[in-house]
Amino acid sequence: MRDDSFHLLKKLVEAPSPSGYEGPVIRIYREYVEQKADFFSIDVMGNASAIISGEQPGPRVMITGHCDEIGFMTQFIDEQGFIYFSAIGSIDHQLIPGRKVTIHTRQGPIAGVVGKKPVHLMEEDEKRKVPALSDLFIDIGARNKKETTEKIMIGDAITLDVNLERLLNNSICSKALDNKVGAFILAEVLRLVKERKKDLCGELICVATVQEEIGIRGARVSAYQHKPDVGIAVDVGFATDHPNVDKKRVGEFSLGKGPIITRGANINPLVFDGLLQIAQEKKIPYQIEGAPQTTGTEAGVMQLSRNGVAAGLVSVPCRYMHTPTEMVSLDDLETTIDLLGHFILEQSSDFSFIPI
Ligand SMILES: [Zn+2]
Q1: Which three-class secondary structure state does DSSP give residue 248?
Q2: What are the Cα distances from residue 127, in Å, to 115, 316, 323?
Q3: Selecting from 2.40.30.10, 1.10.260.40, 2.40.30.40, 3.40.50.300, what CATH number does the domain 71-160 have?
Q4: What is the residue extent of each domain of the chain?
């Protein structure tokens, strides 16, 4: 991976962006794509759209990558100055005690730790129990409520302090790979398509969307705004090549074996066929997922926008999703960029996505 690209990925992943508080990550996305796009805009929710227009007519292809992450929000401060919090999105909260966190206040970031009774002082049955999220608290070192409330406002967003690290075989781990990798892929597809703009038919619309983790909200208004012919969601998908997951139930997906291309009712068959054909022609590795119902991704809301959009879903295999240390392969990011770039540049003026 180019140094510039890796640097962008690291910045996107490490920027705090719990749903509803995506400002920092959208600013990084804007900085990278605004100059390359023919048109750039941010809507009232915070969705950031970068558009490149081709010289010939063709389909409007919108690709989305949600740039919000799961996190927490301050809810209550007790007399001793400890902070109680709620979850933003669905987080595996049994992994949170003992972690370092950052509270993003209006005066700037404040460090804290999620407190935990020492194991020596726990009764045997306590050791087996998972504490309720509402019993967890953050300690910022304050002596009382007054000291905490001088710094913290109710509703401040909280993120885990986990940065991006390289592991063996071109894999990386970090918080929030779900789905900063999606926003990263969009930015890189835009860069590639810009370099070959003369070959583009129609339009490419790359939208870093907000508020996916709390009900797939941003993509809904973006699809309405842009009226695409094709809408492809770029997200993470479950890798099942590690202990304790059931391949019979989820399917077989491995890190480093290429993007997961989904098929099923939520996906337009011609979009699926187009992606598959490109992968085979260009010798891009891929994995196939069957989704008998709606996918629970932005492909679901895009498909139902206005009078229907030809939806697609391309996912990067991810281990340990929604834990503080998710894991993906850089190779899969590059092959996903390659697949989407080629798919967009292969579109022609003579297009139809009517499946029958
Ligand atoms: Zn997620």
Answers
A1: helix
A2: 15, 36, 21
A3: 2.40.30.40
A4: 3-69+175-345, 71-160
How far, in Å, is the centroid of ligand 1 from the Cα of 323? 10
CA of 326 to the centre of ligand 1 (A): 11
**89 CA distance to ligand 1 centroid (A)?**
8
163 burial (CB, 10 Å; 0-12 / 13-18 / 19+) is exposed
Nearby residues for ligand 1 (ion, Cβ within 5 Å): 178
Report how far ligand 1's centroid is from the alpha carbon of 176 (Å): 8
Q: Which of 22, 188, 203, 212 is catalytic?
A: 212
Residue 301 scores a pLDDT above 90: yes
Task: With H, G, I as helix, E, B as strand and everything else as coil, classify residue 356.
Answer: coil
pLDDT at 117 over 90: no
Rounded Cα–Cα distance for residues 328 and 1 (Å): 14
65-114: pLDDT as tens digits:
999 999 999 999 999 999 999 999 998 888 999 999 999 999 999 999 99
Look up residue 262 and give its two tokens: 């989904």
Give the pair of three-digit tokens for residue 347. 């579109």
Reported as a single tens digit per residue, the pLDDT across 269-300 is 999 999 999 999 999 999 999 999 999 999 99
The secondary structure element, H or E, covering residue 272 is helix 269-281
Checking if the pLDDT of 130 tops 90, the result is no
Q: Is the pLDDT of residue 330 over 90?
A: yes
151 backbone dihedrals φ, ψ, rounded to 5°: -105, -40
Q: How long, in residues, is the chain? A: 356
- Does domain 3-69+175-345 fall under CATH 3.40.630.10? My reply is yes
In percent, how much of the chain has pLDDT > 70?
Answer: 100
Strand, coil or helix: what is 329? Answer: strand
DSSP state, residue 61:
E
pTM (whole model) above 0.90:
yes
Q: Is 212 noted as a catalytic residue in this protein? A: yes
